[in-house]
Design brief:
The protein is mainly β. Helices cover 10% and strands 29% of the residues.
Length: 89
């Protein structure tokens, strides 16, 4: 935050459950949100809050990830290698 006494409203989804994979695919990641206070302390945000932020506080929001479709072991290894090479995986 660049100013003191900011009213912060957070409305997140998928903090408690993740998307479920199908046909052998893995589950997605849950969302994570954290307030890092100027003193270094951290407050985990559980989905929906209204709070105050002060100058120097930071908010970190990680959105939920999508789930997998199909068994990753059954995928063509060349396609997996290409995804690793370009940073997709």
């Amino acid at each position: 935050m660049l100013a003191d006494n900011v009213t912060f409203t957070h409305r997140g989804e998928r903090h408690y459950s993740a998307a479920r994979g199908v046909f052998g695919g893995g589950d997605g990641a849950r969302a994570e949100s954290v307030i890092v206070r100027v003193d270094g302390s951290e407050e985990v945000i559980r989905s929906k809050i209204v709070t105050r932020l002060m100058r120097g506080d930071r908010v970190i929001v990680k959105t939920a990830g999508g789930a997998g479709h199909g068994d990753p072991a059954a995928r063509d290894p060349a396609l997996t290698a290409a995804d690793i090479a370009d940073g997709t995986i």
